[in-house]
Design brief:
The chain is of the alpha/beta class and 346 residues long. The chain has helices spanning 5-8, 14-26, 120-133, 150-159, 177-183, 198-206, 256-262, 264-270, 287-294, 299-345; strands at residues 31-39, 42-47, 50-56, 65-71, 74-80, 86-90, 98-103, 107-113, 136-142, 165-168, 187-191, 231-234, 240-243. Among the domains are: 5-80, OB fold (Dihydrolipoamide Acetyltransferase, E2P), CATH 2.40.50.140; 86-243, P-loop containing nucleotide triphosphate hydrolases (Rossmann fold, 3-Layer(aba) Sandwich). Helix content is 36%, strand content 23%. One of its GO terms (biological process) is ribosomal small subunit biogenesis.
Amino acid sequence: MQQLHLLDRYGWNDSVARQFENLLAAENEFSPARVVRVDRGECDVITPDGPIRARTIEPVCTGDWVAVGDHGGHPSVMHVLDRRSAIQRSTASARSEAQILAANVDTVLIVTALDGDVDLGRIERMLALAWESGAQPVVVLTKADAAENISQSLDDVRAIAPGATVLAVSSTNGEGIDVLTAMLDGTVVLIGPSGAGKSTLANTLLGEERLATNAVRGVDGKGRHTTVHRELFPLPSGGTLIDTPGLRGIGLWDAAHGISTTFSDLEELGEDCRFDDCGHLHEPGCAVLAAVESGELAERRLDSYRKLLRENEWVASRTDARLRQERTRTVKARSRALREVYRTRK
């Protein structure tokens, strides 16, 4: 397949081209595209001929690679390619569903501000989300120019982020931005709470004021949601950037691997426990509890590990219950249909 120069700026590469080959060969009227923004029932996509507005016959999210064709006289997403990675969280609704935040991501920038207390538990939760997706997490501590003790904050975060890079940056004075820019590769997504400085950081990385920003409220230290849509932009240094709204809730969804990777230091300690199925609660010979008692492992970190495991298990059980209910409804519907067939035969 020939190179599509406009899509090159939006992440097109040989791997993506290979995924499209069979599909486009079978359906010549389809055009390859990448989703840059999703609204209710429609989305903005980039095609080889430029941006268009398309209807979403299939569910899509920002970062998806899709095939666009004509449906009823309107450009429409006709096919969604398999995602090689996806940032997803559980929804706050009673329905057991996952919400996809971004697709086909290579790097997750976990953004936390240094101008207040750094919430280590929240960072651990976002790390679990990032590791589970298959992307590489980088913890970005923003507003370094307003920090009281950068060195201590960096040490604290690095201690809970094994395997992840941790950087302190400032969009105000440029501290650390060159190092961060050099690390960006492929598709990068920004996640974090409101007021963390995601939009300001995004503008800095984009080299222009593309996104609106608001000051954090002085009353409660919270920020407003200046970003209301997940949107994908090409980066001047190459690759693409997805900005996301501030995350109030970060529910886990099927994140056992992500939790295990986030707490790899704790699980490594657990290999020395007396019992293979040690729950690190009160069992004799527990190496994890011994590490807490000696000060090698912070009790807060063990509490966070237990909390995320419980939450993940609860979400899994809720999902299983929903699937059982769906199977029951299907069986009942079939039974009603059979009864109707027998009734009409009489």
